[in-house]
Amino acid sequence: MSRSDLRALFRSNDHEVKAVDYFADRLGEWESVARSLSNLVSATRARGFDVQDLESPRRNVLTFYGVGGIGKSTLSRRVAEHLGQGLSQEGHWPQLDAGIGPVVPVRIDLARDSGADFESLVLAIRLAAAEIGGPMPTFDLALQRYWEHNHPGETLDDYVLRRTRLSGLPGARNLSGQMQSALTDVAQAVALPGTVGNVVGQGLRIVVRALRERQQRVRALAECRRFADLLEATPDQDALSYYPHLLAWDLANVPARHRATLVVLLDTFEDVGDRIHRDLERLVQRVVWLMPGTLFVITGRNRLQWDDQRLEGQLDWAGEEFWPQLAGGAAREPRQHTVGYLSAGDCETYLSQRLTRDGRPMMDDATRRLITANSHGLPLYLDLAVMRFLDLYRRRGRAPAANEFNLDFPALVARTFRDLSPETRRVLRSVSLLETFSVPLASAAAGLDHDAPAQDLVDRPFVDQDLDAPWPYRLHSLIRDAVREMDSTSDDRWTSADWQRAARRAFEALGREDFSHRGRLVSALRQGLALAHEFDLPLGWLEDAAFRYVDDFVWEPIEPPAHSPGDGPVTPAQALATTLAAIAQRQRHHRGRTAQQLREVLSTGVLPETLEELPRYFLAECDRDLGTFQLSLEGMRQVADGGGRLSTTARRGLIHLARRIGDFPQAWEASTHLGVEGRQDRVMGDLYWSQGSIALACASYAAARDQALAAGQTGEAALSQACLAFAAAFQDRPRAAEQIARAEELLAHVTIRWAEVQTRIASLARDAGIADDLPERAEVVAAEAREAGLTSSLSYVRFVECLHAYLTGDVDALTSARIRLTRECVNGVEFAYLAELTYLMADAEPPAELPRATWLDITDRVRARWVALSEDRRRESVTARQGA
What we know:
The chain is mainly alpha-helical. Strand 4, helix 14 and strand 5 (295-300) form a beta-alpha-beta unit. The longest helix is centred in the last third of the chain and has 25 residues, at 859-883. The two termini are 75 Å apart.
């Protein structure tokens, strides 16, 4: 039953307002506990599991961490209570899977003010094991020796009874009897009188000798291979930290009908170590490692760092190889979870039940929805919103409107800053300027020459971690917004000049990053453009990054900063961001839309002269695809003559234009000067296939692909491979199928609309003369080409339709296909060469009115090659149809 929320009750004189201290169901956290138990029990019951194996990685730690005051301790208590109900589990949480079997929980608060120490922790775990009902002979014998040495004259029963936290555990009633039983059994086994009441001197030596000689009467105990060594060790605290290995062995050897899974809940774990002195944490970790069959549920403010190899020496087992499921990105339970970000449903329930009047929620639906959205699941925000609601309700005598809650709370910053050192606060403010960051990047942005404050920050629960991201850390969205917008709550708050200096540091730090990693380049571009726009910074390194971005054909989205008419002139950063966004989005939108955006960017005139060629070149490329030949020609010439970074690319664009109008000698001459940087081999392939020299074309495309792969240019490799698939489809159908498959594989990792369509056209060319449904398939691809504004792709589709009609011998279909090609694609001399080829392959004369191409060879030789190709395909088609 929910208790009254005293803080809220003392906020108002209205006695009909009911305020309760509501605890969210945390169903997701409970499900993590249940899955963790299920996975652990399955692993311990699997054949080959050995509780004495000290080398296998451990998967028995479930961690919940989060900022103070968000309910971690309450969660720990609720889990312990729910597990302690056994088969009669009731409440909002579902029951455990029956296959898990009995579970025995014990919750230990490690807070400094609780008086807990390592000895008490070990005793608490043993008291929990006492509930299982069987003796723990190896552990109890070792514990007896430890106790006699460290607590002379004080019985274990007296010690437990004097400590409320221990005496309150149910097993306290059974421990003494179980220990006496175990000790008596050992004494009888080695022929000692009575019990092993004094595990020293001759008695100890007899027990150890019997174990080492594996005497028949102690054979079962001798199976615990390290038992004798632990009995001989000096019984100090260090030895005590290894005794849980014995308890784990005892638990594993409890008869099956009595066996249960032990769950140890360790709360307030931040008090175990201060991240400098980890002596106690080292002992606790040792307990966890030595008990692989026990689930440890750890709650605290900070993420557990046991997966960090840098802690080797401070901890016995440090690194991901030892704790694979504690590492960031782990998906299998048990693993680490951030507590505090409630689901939208939990937020709604919290706000509905926290404040009620006459049994109904005081907040209306709109208010709850707005608060839920603004909270990003942070309970502290919900609590502050509830207090604001009560204050406004008290002042006005009515419920406030929803729009009065569309705000951040300065208290969020105060609460966040409270536990941070001045240098860590400096880092927090600096990284609030960034979407994602690394520790070195955070230090550089803060202007620090050491990483300790940044490392302290990333270990905080309001910093999310994604190891697959270019930079692994990200501030919780609400905290980031609050720091930026409400920095007025501490004595060391920043002025606008401080923020300007921090922005410049962050911008320059981004520019010093290694951009050989594509993801890091794109992330730096996005963040750098935003900083340059907001703080009016010179573009600097963004210019080089922008050209690197367009060098390949991956086209991750770049979101330009928003600009409204009242915002003043467009900034250079906005213009550059819009340019890159338009270039990338042309793979998903019609080329006409991209052309319009690039014209608008050029019209602003705010880009530096060295960057103007970027929108100008891609505008010329769009004009080419749209069939506006003259505009494309003028743009390409302007960029080529400018001698900038895209001049070689523009010269290649001029070659494409020459090829479109059938001026192949001019295209050939220009292509011989391109070199590898200008993708000469791919251009040569474009020229060869149209001449009917398919083998040369395929060899050129393959060389271009291999060069691109060697240089790490995935997009260029995929583009060359799509061209290779298209060329191969005219001559070698089996090889074409392989090349098409490889093109699809490469294109799965990039977004190049033209290459995707070209690969589909290659499939049409491969099936020409054979597939009855080819005309229907061709219409689908043609529609896709029109939708994207790709005139060359539409022309190739119509050309393949002509090839198909000729191979099937359908004269009427060939006539219709030629008409479609001429009407839709041939624009004066543009693509007239494709129409001419449909006659040459049939060994026929083109119409007199059709413009003629200037081929690389005499026309008769081009005709002969295409006739040979078409005749080979005609025979192959007949054979394939007969086989079908």
